[in-house]
Specification:
about 230 residues, alpha/beta, 6 helices
Length: about 230
């Protein structure tokens, strides 16, 4: 597994008080998500943003990256994948917090699709709970052949979670969104959620607005302002 790095966006205020890590989807790279930081800078002026490139080249998209291989032919590959990628990403998060430096409680994880799988998996297992986790168009990965009770036993913390999904998603079906929020609830990990009507596999303006509000609330910031 290669070293993890990617584009960064400095805090608008010049003084980092929070860190938002943006995790891209399968076949993309960090450049695909760093613009979210640009959209949220007015609402989160003290946040530093980083969008790491996943460590491995994507087999299906030669110019893209992947957190783990995904063929959708083996249900076990999800759990195998998140556990494979977790140690490297966890170490990267610690390095980024030390870079500024910031306590682990000032971290927020935002993921899209496969990146959302990683954000939720990692975020629930950090020694210190992140301030927030946002999963766009992703899903909660449970241990092989295990139900929500396995998450109740393995989750170390219960950070605030926002799940956002399009009801027309043809890559990660909306049924996965309903499964994820119900499984989190069954594991006694409450989450907020937003379902974007007419949206396929992507992030629309309302999903972006909801994410900015959620992060501002998690960081105890004013909720007024743009996005």
């Amino acid at each position: 597994m290669a070293a993890i790095d990617g584009p960064r966006l400095a805090p608008k205020s010049g003084t980092p008080k929070q860190l938002v890590v943006l995790l891209h989807g399968l076949g993309a790279d960090g450049n695909d998500l760093i613009e979210l930081g640009g959209q949220w800078r007015d609402r989160l002026p003290d946040a530093a943003f980083v969008a790491p490139h996943a460590p491995d080249p994507c087999g299906n998209v030669p110019m893209g990256r992947e957190w783990f291989p995904l063929t959708l032919t083996d249900p076990r590959e999800f759990w195998r994948g998140v556990t494979y990628a977790a140690p490297g990403l966890d170490a990267f998060l610690d390095q980024e917090l030390a870079r500024y430096p910031l306590p682990a409680s000032k971290l927020a994880l935002v993921g899209f699709s496969q990146g959302a799988m990683m954000a939720i998996h990692i975020g629930l297992r950090r020694q210190t709970a992140p301030a927030a986790i946002i999963g766009y168009s992703g899903l909660l990965v449970l241990e092989d052949r295990q139900g929500p009770e396995s998450l109740r036993n393995s989750a170390r913390t219960k950070p605030p979670i926002l799940l956002v999904h399009g009801d027309r998603d043809d890559v990660v079906p909306v049924e996965m969104f309903f499964f994820s929020k119900e499984a989190l609830g069954a594991a006694e990990i409450p989450c907020q959620w937003h379902l974007s009507a007419g949206l396929a596999h992507g992030i629309d303006d309302e999903a972006l607005r909801q994410g900015g509000l959620f992060l501002a609330q998690a960081f105890d910031l004013p909720s007024s302002g743009k996005i």
